[in-house]
Amino acid sequence: MAKELRVAMIGYGFMGRAHSNAYKRLNDFFPVEHRPVLKVAVGRNAEKVKAFADTWGYERIETDWRKAVEAPDVDLVDIGTPNDTHHDIAIAAARAGKMVLCEKPLAMNVREAEEMVRAVEEAGVPNMVWFNYRRVPSIALAKQIIDEGRIGRPFHYRATYLQDWTISPEVPQGGAALWRLDVNVAGSGVTGDLLAHSIDTAMWLNGPITRVVARTETFVKERLHQVTGKVEPVGIDDACLFLAEFANGSLGTFESTRYARGRKNFNTFELNGADGSLYFDLEEPEYLQFFEYKQLQSGKKTESHLTGWRKIHTTNSEHPYMKYYWVPGTCIGYEHTFLNALADFVMGIESGKPTQPDFRNALQTQRVCDAVLESARTGRWVQTGVEL
Question: Alpha-carbon distance 31 to 34, whole Å?
Answer without folding.
Answer: 9
